[in-house]
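Sequence only, no structure available. Ideas?
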Amino acid sequence: MLDTVSWIIFTLPPSSNSTIVSHDGRAITIDGQRKILLSGSIHYPRSTTEMWPDLINKAKEGGIDTIETYVFWNAHEPLRRQYDFTGNLDLVRFIKTIQDAGLYAVLRIGPYVCAEWNYGGLPVWLHNIPGIELRTANGPYMDEMKNFTTLIVDMMKKEKLYASQGGPIIISQIENEYGNVMTSYGDAGKAYIDWCAKMADSLDIGIPWIMCQQKDAPQPMINTCNGWYCDSFTPNNPNSPKMWTENWTGWFKNWGGKDPHRTAEDVAYAVARFYQTGGTFQNYYMYHGGTNFGRTAGGPYITTSYDYDAPLDEYGNLNQPKWGHLKELHNVLKSIEKTLTYGNISTSDLGNDISATIYATNDTSSCFISNSNTTTDATVNFQGSKYNVPAWSVSILPDCKNEVYNSAKVNTQTSVMVKKSNEAESEPSSLKWVWRPENVDETVLHGKGDVAASQLIDQKVTNDVSDYLWYMTSVNIKDDDPIWSDNMTIRVNGTGHVLHAYINGEHIGSEWATYGIFNYVFEKKVKLNPGKNQISLLSATVGLQNYGPNYDEVQSGLPGPVELIGRKGDERVIMDLSAHKWVYKVGVSGIDDNKLYTEDSRNETKWYVEDLPTNRMMTWYKTTFKAPLGKEAVVLDLQGLGKGFAWVNGHNIGRYWPSFLAQEDGCSTDACDYRGEYDDKKCVYNCGQPTQRWYHVPRSFMTNDVNTLILFEEFGGNPSLVNFQTVEVGTACGNAYENNHMELSCHGRPISAIKFASFGDVQGTCGSLQKGTCQANNDASSIVQKACVGKETCSVKASEEVFGATGCAGDVAKRLVVEAVC
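Reply:
I predicted one. Tokens follow.
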């Protein structure tokens, strides 16, 4: 009898070391064997080539066997038929780095990706092709999409990177979350998704294709789930396995927003529930979020940091306890892979939101007990034994007898990361600054530009080669003009997302949007002169729209109207300037023309040493520095600055905006309660503080000798507080429930002291720990000090055998908790 996957036909010729990847209704199969796959998203452009091996190896050490990445079309083809696969855009090198680590790869070609990436990953030049409509049954768009998708597929084939050729890529994706917006495109949307499936299938890559968030995904596409929880997801075909392509480990940040946090317990609960309910492939989005270098952040208003509260933080450090708690879960799931993929499944409802699931083969059985109650712990009688299952948790019993893992019982350390001043440049004052003004005079005074039109244009017309676009026009006013008055204003309707307005060379004001509300009205009083008056408006985008139905139609820049308003008594006279002759200039001269951030800029010598200005708009600052000592991640503290860009040795580390503070209210005041469904507003912090103060500077951007930092300050700020710092573990809090081992690590540095240690019913959280009502009679601190101080890592068993009797009642969950200083 043929297996249920036999309908998939592979046309690539088999190689001697090819891997047969297929699937049935239970799981992805590799060389005929069903697999439990544990994947993590790492996006190659959000880190550096030098970081890739470390990130991938840490993922592997954390129990990840598959790395998932999008392919970023606009990064690779920023201008039509001009391609870039160099540096951290070297996709082939990234896939080969995954292969070198012995891991599988999932290639999500899209090529629309969303991903909080500028314009959702689509090149803006698409928008300017005559007759084009994006992401629908439109000939010009489908031609371009097929061209790029084929380019990527051929590139992978040439390097033999598909599993069918012996490579690591076992799954590929076409389109992305289209089902969320498809109804807005009508019948053309359905025709488009059918075309996507046929086009992808015709490329003959010899591995399965997936479509996420696409309930009606045509065969042979596998539809998959994205979200915080996917345990209730059911594929649309009985021959498709239950796959979760995006388990959101946290959430992204936007300018003006707070820091979101998702607990390790809740992520683990979601994963365990997914595998309890028949899931066999799960991917963390993100496993490492990284950094939106340069102008890659989308949104609009997505921050430069894309940390995502992932198991590996923005800089590549272990985010503990999330990384360690999930590693333990991965080890347990892998240990019962055969049972989960081949066993018969039976589930019993035990009442009060408690369920038990048994996976049974002829040889063995494995069990899950879940408690979905959000407040009440449970003592569960199951197969003749009692189990304590906390609220909102899942217990895993690999032999259906002994609990080896519970999603709410964390047996790994919590690391509190700290930022330390640069030992090479210990004080901010040691940075010696020079400066120069951005040359705006010719623009704002004389309206000199590149092109002219008798209308206001969408800023996307420029193909998004810069954040900045000048809109300039002149107006002749006569004394007897009906609009003339002493009480005149200019009113501008913008979607920019930032506007700086100049009248006759004088800056009269600025306006910027807030996240989610990008249409704004700027109105300021103006003093016009009889005769010619020059109006110069600088529009600045902060990442283009990346999500939503027809998102490409959202205008950017100054769609208008732009109006002069005169007032005489109660009477208003309006002059609409929208159809005037407008002159346009792309970019600001220091970035886009003179490239002042590069070492070979022709204006390299024109910097001023004296009279360093502060709080001055449109100003360039430059300094030199030595790289911080050591190997820890480096961040640039930009406290005191307004908004702009920063370059280190010519590398654009992204947009900065430390003057944009998070909202004053709405933050969580206590530790995050993992119980109950998570969303991006549940556990948020950092109210009233800069949304992002620190900016990642990868070590590979710096040299061992003298380095150059250049800032373009758009709003005005004070560089005197700017300095470089390193990120490292400051405090490590070990935690282990009874009969588990408490493990501590300072990640390459010795443990210097033990601030707290107790075995019993310890209360509080890391940094505010307290002894409970019962505790061991031996001195826990002295025992832990002997075992740990002076060592980089240590392990101590949490047991009465080591620490003595506690006197705790039998139903009290005892644990060893230690706070160590690194």
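Residues 1-15 have pLDDT under 50 and may be disordered.
Hope that gets you unstuck.
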